[in-house]
Amino acid sequence: MHGVVCRHGRLEAVSGVDLDVAAGERIALTGTNGSGKTTLLRAVLGLHRQVEGEILVGRRGARSAAEWAWRRRACAWIPQRPAAGRFPLLARELLASSGAPAEAASAAVRLGVGALGDRPLSSLSGGQLQRMHLARAVGCVAAGAGVLLADEPTAALDFAGQEEAAEVLTTLPVTVLVVTHDRAMAARCDRTLEMAAGRLREVR
Amino acid sequence: MSALGQVGDLLQLVPVQRAGAGLLLSALGLPIVGVVIVGLDIMPVRFAMMHVALLGIAVGQLVGLDPVLCALVACALAGAGVAPLARTADGLSGAMGLLMSLAIAAALLMLALSGVNANGAFALLWGSILAVRPADLAVLGALAVALPALFVWRRRELSLLLHDRELALCSGVAVQRLTVLLLVLVAVAVAGAIRLTGALLVDALTLLPALAARRLGRSLVSITLWAIGIGLVVNVVGFLVSLAWDLPPGPVLVLAAGAVALAAHLIPERRTPSWREPAASSVPSLH
Fold first, then answer.
1. Which of B159, B170, B277 sits opposite A45 (nearest CB)?
2. Among B92, B211, B219, the residue to mutate for chain A (most A Cβ within 10 A)
3. Would you tell me which of A9, A186, B28, B170 could form a disulfide with B144, CB atoms 3.0–4.6 Å apart?
4. pLDDT (tens digit, 9 = 90+) per residue, A43-60?
């Protein structure tokens, strides 16, 4: 990332962020609420529209639709607040959307939500939904994603679940950028960065 | 004459047969359009497309082409035109409102230029089931094939898109292209259905079965199947009732569909197994 600026209308949510992440590195992104962490992550995926500066993943930029499609295949995403959805989606359909249904389903079993495949996502609890998204991310990695962007992936989990999730996330053979307020999760990462008012600094 | 005998006699008439065929075909395609309308949250689409259809009719009268064909083309173009505004959740609803205002203004301007009495153009919007022409049947037939086919062929992408646009984007769905396709199909279907029942009664064929199905089904597939099933039952029963007791078909269809939608909302929600995984728990789910 080089000179990345993201705006919400007139508000500058991310200002001039420079960040180099080596392949396979695990980075924890911390910081107060509203400091721009989620926006930064969404900018990588092209979900935030007002972005300036340069973001490269695997040395590739994203301008055309095909390049964005590659970027989104290369980056698995765990959203902060998984959408409740306007229309019901079955949990197994969510797992299948990763591109590797079998691996995602076995990850779901490991995370204790394997039996919920036939349930609509709207009927799952917050923690169960987060585990499903975690399992989906494992599937994305199996399908070839080399980067994992996780936005507070353990926020809705119980203590045991936080441990489990941190274990799953940090043992995946990919580059990890995780937004988190969980110290244990941050401790498992190679570097910890802190965001404050849209700016980034290295903590550890 | 008994009601049954009257139905039998009426069914011998060609316009009545065409109307029945039209309703059967529309029951295969239009409830799916309703599912899309509910899924994309674009309820005002009917009003918007009605105004766009009027604009198409006005253009047709101005240049001397078939007004209904012009209305269909105008609706298809408008559907494709508003797709870029679908980026945000409420972008589409707002776009429909904008489209509606612009279309009616342009239509009135066209009508004034062509010197046609506006009432004449409006009359085309008050479709009637018994005035269905073979060309209308062709449009409905094409929709009855295209929509279910699309839903079978692109089931996975559609359920992701209708659930959450961003999740669909990140799962490699061609969101933009699929949205354009859906909006064009919705626009053409609404324009086609206007000919069948009139602008005010389009809901009976599209939205109401989908609303009832939304309540009964738990996934896109089951909701779609419910919607088609309800559409078929409502159309057949409503049509036969209107024939038997000599009632206007449009209102009877709406009332029948409305009754089903209401009933679907009144029956208690199906009990799902408890949240907790071992099904032993006897705590009822909190719904």
1. B170
2. B219
3. B28
4. 888 888 888 888 888 878
Can you tell me the distance from the alpha carbon of B7 to that of B12, in angstroms, rounded to the nearest whole number? 9
| Domain annotation for chain B: domains and CATH numbers | 3-264 (1.10.3470.10)
Contact A88 B38 (CB under 8 A): no
Long-range (24+ apart) CB contacts under 8 A made by A46-51 are A46/A71, A46/A72, A46/B169, A47/B166, A47/B169, A47/B170, A48/A6, A49/B87, A50/A6, A50/A7, A50/A8, A50/A9, A51/A4, A51/A5, A51/A6
Q: Look at residues A158, A160, A154 and name the one whose alpha carbon lies nearest to residue A183.
A: A154
Question: Tell me: the pLDDT tens digits for B198-256?
Answer: 766 777 788 899 989 988 888 888 999 999 999 999 999 998 998 888 888 888 888 89
How is chain A split into domains, by residue range? 2-202
List the single residue in B39, B170, B172 with the smallest CB-CB distance to A86.
Answer: B39
Comparing CB atoms, the residue among A77, A115, A120 nearest residue B170 is A77
Q: Count Cβ neighbours within 10 Å for each residue of B37-57 and write b for 16 or more, e otherwise.
A: bbbbebebbbbbbbbbbbbbb
Contact between chains at B159 and A89 (C-beta distance less than 8 A): yes
Say how many C-beta atoms besides its own lie within 10 A of residue B176's C-beta.
Answer: 14
Full-model pTM: 0.82
CB count, 10 Å around CB of A3? 12
User: What's the topology of domain A2-202?
Assistant: Rossmann fold (3.40.50)
